[in-house]
């Protein structure tokens, strides 16, 4: 098949194999793929080459990883080293993924046969899958990335890997060969989006091809080896209807959110880490009209809008000389020159909030963003603080007037102690009373108890507001009847529950 070849030598170069005498080379049938060196030649004995299934089958039900003995990892290290000595990686890179996997499986089978490793069939299957993943994918992470029920993957050095499933964090038996293998995989991930992580630049944000968010912090800042965190996205993107099914919002609340997205209210989605802010933002953008021009600004591109006219922008960190950085504020300011109809900021963390607010109250209605905070009131305070961080010397009242004139609705998401995620507030920003910003809750989530499995029981309810502040906007888009019906139905549901 293929391997390392000398430029002048027509025959494959053999590597010595001290374990057993070298067998006569088997004449290979002509094939378009390059030939490999027979460092681990096919055994002369009749041992059929095993064809293994793909190393990461997509299972409908999550299967816990088996704990493996130390001897398995020692064998894997020896086989991997022999494989690297045997194959020509430059030739391997020319093959498609499936052909490369078949080639690696053939070579690994030969190495196992030549070196007489004592392994069960199950261990050999695991070894073949693991080594294919090490060479072509993300190594031990591949089985976790294939599972759609995992929300987060947290790697704390080579020996510890945790996952979040159904809102609960649990340790896995996944481990890496050493810290260098973990760092190599981190570098492989971030290099795909043109970034790097090493001692001179030990912190990096990146993304996987499916949009999953990646954060890496490497030594010397991470003392026990590189720390890798992956926020996974489901293959099937969530919709508001699915959020209703999961209990994150009631059907009436989902209708109100649809109307808010449709009638171009300026929306801030507030919540803590892992509360589902980006997921909710993705859901709301489904109700944007297809003829609108949307520009998204993100640190790591995560939003996946379905509209045809979308421009996606991403920040850039400085290079090794400390130059070339493009900040979120640079992107938001540039958006204003790109004729946007809506501007969506994936996450507002600093002074760019001022530019986003300026865009919201200067003709770019329907803009959206997310902010880390624990309540709608705290969200308003955080926006004030972030504007102050930008060095703006504006009076506090002026800053609050800018916020009031820009933000229409704050949607609060929360991750409860049982791991469930709920939309807890839909809150309008009304105006000013003196120096205080006034707000009005339209929809709330009340916790009423706990069931026998320890899961929290609650309900969404309307606060009784019959005519929200964005009523005229809803009427402009012919949505006032649907809005009134949703508010009335939520009130009836609340009375029935009592």
Tell me what you see in this structure.
This protein is an alpha/beta fold. It folds into three domains: 1-136, no CATH class; 143-231, Beta-Lactamase (2-Layer Sandwich); 240-497, P-loop containing nucleotide triphosphate hydrolases (Rossmann fold, 3-Layer(aba) Sandwich). Helix content is 34%, strand content 19%. Strands 9-8-10-11-7-12-13-14-15 form a nine-stranded mixed β-sheet, sandwiched between helices. A hairpin with a 2-residue loop joins β13 (421-433) and β14 (436-450). It is elongated and about 80 Å long. It starts with 69 loop residues before the first helix and ends with a helix.
Low-confidence parts: 1-64, 493-497
Compute the gyration radius: what is it? 28 Å
Mean pLDDT: 81
- By secondary-structure content and strand pairing, the structural class works out as alpha/beta
Strand order of the largest sheet: 9-8-10-11-7-12-13-14-15
- The count of β-strands is 15
Q: What coarse outline follows from CA principal-axis ratios? A: elongated
The total tally of domains equals 3
The name CATH uses for the topology of the largest domain is: Rossmann fold
Major sheet size, sense and barrel closure = 9 strands, mixed
Give the SSE string.
HHHHHEEEHEEEHHEHEEHEHEHHEEEEHH
* Share of residues in helices: 25-40%
Could you tell me how far the N terminus lies from the C terminus, measured between alpha carbons in angstroms?
Answer: 74 Å
Assign the CATH superfamily of the largest domain: P-loop containing nucleotide triphosphate hydrolases
Instruction: Report the total helices.
Output: 15
CATH class of the largest domain: Alpha Beta
**CATH architectural grouping of the largest domain:** 3-Layer(aba) Sandwich
